Amino acid sequence: MPRIEKYKKVLIIGSGPIVIGQACEFDYSGTQACKALVAEGIEVILVNSNPATIMTDPEIASKVYIEPLEKTFVEKIIAAERPDAIIPTLGGQTALNLGLELDRSGILKKYNVEMIGATPEVIKSAEDREIFNQLLRKVGAKHTRSQMIRDFKHGLKVSDELGFPIILRPNYTLGGGGGGVAYSKEEFEIMLAHALGESPTSEVLIEESILGWKEFELEVMRDRAGTFVVICSIENFDPCGVHTGDSITVAPQQTLSDLEYQDMRDEARRILDIVGLECGGANIQFAVDPKTKKRVVIEMNPRVSRSSALASKATGFPIAKIAALLAIGYRLDEIQNDITKSTPSCYEPALDYVVTKIPRFAFEKFYGAKDQLSTQMKSVGEVMSIGRTFKESFQKALCAQESYLGFDEVVFDKKKLSHPSSHRILQVAQAFRESLSVEEVNHLTMISPWFLEQIEEIVHFEEKIRKFPMNKDILTSAKRFGFSDGRLAQLQNSTEEDIRKLRNDLEVLPVYLKVDTCAGEFASETPYFYSSYWGSATPVQTSKKQKVIVIGSGPNRIGQGIEFDYCCVRGVKQLQKQGFEVIMINSNPETVSTDYDTSDQLYFEPLDFEHVFDVVNHVQPMGLVLQLGGQTPLSLVHELHKNGVPILGSTIETIDFTEDRSRFQIVCEGIGFEIPEAGLASDLNEALLCADRIGYPLICRPSYVLGGRRMEIIENIEDLKRYFTMYASEISPKARCFMDQFLENALEIDVDIVRGQDWSLVGGIVEHIEAAGVHSGDSMGVIPPQRLRSELLQIIEKQCLQLADKLNVIGHLNVQLAIKNERVYIIEANPRCSRTVPFLAKATGIPLVDLGIMAMTLVPRDQIPLSDFNWKSIEVVCVKGVVFPFKKFPEADSILGPEMKSTGESMGRGQEYSEALMKAFISSHQKLPREGEVFLSLREQDKKTLLPVAQDLLKLGFRLSATSGTAQFLYENGVDCIPVKKVHEGRPNCVDRIRSGGVHLVINTTSGRQAVEASFSIRRSCTDFSIPCLTEDHAAEAFVLALKKQKSGEFGIYPI
Amino acid sequence: MSKGYLVLGNGEVFSGSWLGNKEAIGEVVFNTSHNGYEEIATDPSYYGQIVVMTAPQQGNYGVNDSFWESRQLWIRGFICLELQKSTANSAWLERLNEHGIPAIDNLDTRSLVLHLRDQGTQVGAMFSANSIEEAREKALPLVRSFSDQELNWAYQVSRKKNQKMEGASTGGPRVAVVDYGCKQNIIRELIKRCREVMIFPANTSAQEILDWNPDGILLSNGPGNPQDVLGAPETIRELLGKKVIFGICMGHQLLGRALGGETFRLKFGHRGANHPIQDLRSGKVFMTSQNHGYAITKESLPSSVELTHINLNDKTVSGISSAKHNCFSVQFHPESHPGPRDAENLFDEFIERIQA
Ligand SMILES: Nc1ncnc2c1ncn2[C@@H]1O[C@H](COP(=O)(O)OP(=O)(O)O)[C@@H](O)[C@H]1O
Ligand SMILES: Nc1ncnc2c1ncn2[C@@H]1O[C@H](COP(=O)(O)OP(=O)(O)O)[C@@H](O)[C@H]1O
Ligand SMILES: [Mg+2]
Ligand SMILES: [Mg+2]
Fold first, then answer.
1. Is-above-0.90 flag for pTM?
2. ipTM tops 0.85
């Protein structure tokens, strides 16, 4: 069955901004699919609102729309492009839902667009619990018993039938609120009442618990001829009850016998058949009772997923690419296996290694959030590692987290062992150090004994390392167990350097093995490697080209995400264009950079010094690029430099320069930048003195804090005292606290520069919409600037270029500035590619990353068409929107501050500012209300500024309500509004009003710890009920501008 | 723990940890299946072979008597990267040792597999030794002794007496099985579908089988080179056309030879659970469990024989059928154990052909 010829033009829907549960794995799958279809000569139209993706690069698809993933916008695109087919299975749940909506509303029919990959019927069968369960029963598969509850009494009755613990899933779930596990009747009653209240339809699915069961996933594919293959089996280390996205997982599955595994495989095939998925990839989750071996199906996703990205990286089987080819008619046996280049794609990969995935969390970013894992996904990223055994693979994965050396020692706490959390794995190892048995730990955690034994063996081996002097045998065994040099140094009371020296002397060096899809059965050509201490030395691939290594950005985390992967991938491509052989090192399975066909050689390795330096020694590159992967590669620069590794671009002096405050200050002042008043304090007394000199408000941050940054704006002396009490343990003469004058109400901008040896260029200036004080990653931004005068712009550009000269930057420089009263303050400078670079590149069309590579590889001025690159000549206004994960953290406050909390960004493009704003808000999942009530609660200094906003809202037909002070002010200024009680003034109060659905937009500005705490419940109820809540005055102005635009009903769509 | 060595016929040495008592000699083959070590070890087709598992960790889920594919363990030795031997669970290692099967783990199986892939299947000897030199010396006479042994492996592993079994399907046919080293799951699949099953030793004459008057005859799997199963093609030829015949693996190769075809030795065989097969009649592709070192030469088949299945990896013959003689056979294992069960319906096809 060859390709179906009628599909000449295909629309692919992306997944939008990065959110928890839907991250850059969909950039990976979408990019693969686009490339595969373009290679088939198909015209591929792509729509995605996320500018930080590779897939939205002009080279990937035939035409790219960075537009909201909403029906009205996509309809316009369909009307303009008239595609033959649409593929909704590559962009996660977002694309699937959008596809369904396009179908339901008749748009697909109207424009005669066929849905391929999965039909609406299939999607419904898999997504609708009732239908799906019915289908499961038809094929003899089991599922958990559950019932939809609509009233409290009924709920109690059903809970008696199902027993405890019991799972609650509010329908149309409103984030963290409502769902979860109830362990007792009392708990259940409280949770049920809450859950019914949280669900807009007052519906809660109550489900029998399978907590503690073993959880598995099968990644499967099927073609139109009915050929069925399991690409990968994945076993969860954490048992049922911890979302698979938050679980440590292992591939292939390790603890099922062939009989049990084949039963599961057969069931998967039957499910796929009955659901009717004609072709493509799917993910099916199973749970198995460890005692009775009873198996149930948890759910099925009829599309590529996070796990399919993991499965692709784990096996070398490019699921998304193949899914796209299947969608246009090919059969699995007609597609070649990319890795072996000799066998077809209809096979099940055989692995001769073990893959471990460990998620990465961000609880520390959300003050008050409980570090507790449950059935709702909370992790923001993940690492994958490959080793020949579970032990080797697992300890490598711990290193790849970039926060552990391995099984780091912790204070043992039984409670922390029995309650799943982001750090529980360390408690598991600690339990064995405390001599708990496998049975005891299994009893407390329900983790399979097989996994526990592996960890116990690692812990027991620690004793050997502690007691015996290192010889070649012990060292080899230790490395085969996956112990990092750093951890060995701890155990031996020596240094990482000593261990490395010993390894070199004893010749205990890693070898690099191929991921070949077939356990060595066939020769493979694809240079996709992992390190191991099992095996004989592998020769390096020789080529005439000069080799360059690009270091990736590791696991996604808040502050370092997909945007850096974009930079890495662009960088790799540019280096290849310039004739280099490019080697990629990264540990993140979700990314495009870890696709085996992105670089010339891929090393899937932790991004710590040990593993990176080992690869460097193995491939002997002419240089390393460290500027593209964010802070991770940059943090390796000192050690690499010390060991004589050649770094391309800015030297270590430049990097140190930007971090040495006093030297940096002198240079900046020389250029004409202002510097905020600053000081350092090692305790409260010094802080008080410092504050006297600088004055309030201040911005404080400890100079050394693992994980979270603890950056806060301090309004007064009480606040300062509280801050120093709270972080007493993190501030000392050795780790002093930075205190800066806080520039209130200043305009913040990001400037990105590239500088070569004899040339430099400003890539663009993004003007932040919120004032300084909201982290640059969290504030919305606009290019071209709307408020900066052009004369000042010119001065700033000149100054920034001067700064790059003075610092002797080669490559990228990002400068963050704050402008107040026409004076330009410098906040910081980063000698690397920044978060804004992909946004700028998409907005201006200037290939900033490519230019950075040209700079780093010393391409001279006359070979670069600098005059083509003028960021000011951009024709559309581009606004950066921001997406936050507050819903997932029920205790977290959505107020914005100097610490970054957002997970993703979107781009709105328009003829004018308001259009771009409108789209950016929509793309960031903000509902733009058309009518109803706006509730205002404003701090004193914002009242005047926001008066026109209130007036505009009235004119737009909204009703206003406000807390007493604000209401009074509005009233005095002739604006009609309903006064509402504050929370502590009794009931019904403003929160009651919001929670009962009477409010459609909230503007709430506050400052000062007390006021912030007092108004927390206002913002939280908005988060829970998806009501837009603006916490900053400029953002409020922008929002109203967007509302006006929406009301006008006029908008366009603009391909890039 | 002492050092264990595997020395190949070509002098190549691999070392690891010795987990056994006495040495072993055999053909060294690798299997890429992730699971099923116990099924593999008890499959008579592995007679005379040292099995290398490419999946690194073995013994993970212990042992289970119901996984046995015959009355004993047939492999000569077991090699993997890491064999489960924790205090809590070392059942698989214990079972190997109980049955006198030595194992080596801690051995770089990937290098070994790449070597076998490139150099082809080799005879090897495994044992414990103190040094590589000692190992080489020790290996030489052992490896040589291997070529002295009798090669009629199918006869050696076959049952020595007839065995009659009640089937579960009262309306089903009576089927004779010729046991060249039959896997138990073939019998299980037949019992599900038959009224009665009679298993005959490999050297049973055609007449004796026909005397029992079966409705159909299944030629089972078995170890070694089909050329060494002397007399079998002749016996089968006598049965041709008289009853519906279904051959599996060795049974397929012998049927091929009986029909006038030739067999040849594959460089390193097919052993695993992920081999794609295409049914050329329907075009359908499915995953199969495989375990064979020989195959039928495509060109040697007479024109009356239809090529029904091919292996999509290397395009070798994987299934044949003859309308004239009402027989068919497949190179792979529809009875799985271990491996996917996608081809299970071939047993139904067999019954349907009988009942047609
Ligand atoms: N009935 C249940 N009892 C206990 N845990 C469950 C139950 N159902 C689901 N889970 C856990 O919750 C997680 C998420 O459930 P799932 O249905 O897969 O939702 P999602 O669509 O978010 O992936 C699963 O990975 C599993 O660990
Ligand atoms: N002196 C200051 N005045 C006002 N805002 C500031 C000041 N210093 C930092 N900020 C705010 O805090 C944010 C984060 O500070 P920054 O030094 O850029 O940290 P990061 O390294 O996390 O980017 C900035 O984007 C800015 O909004
Ligand atoms: Mg799930
Ligand atoms: Mg910053």
1. yes
2. yes
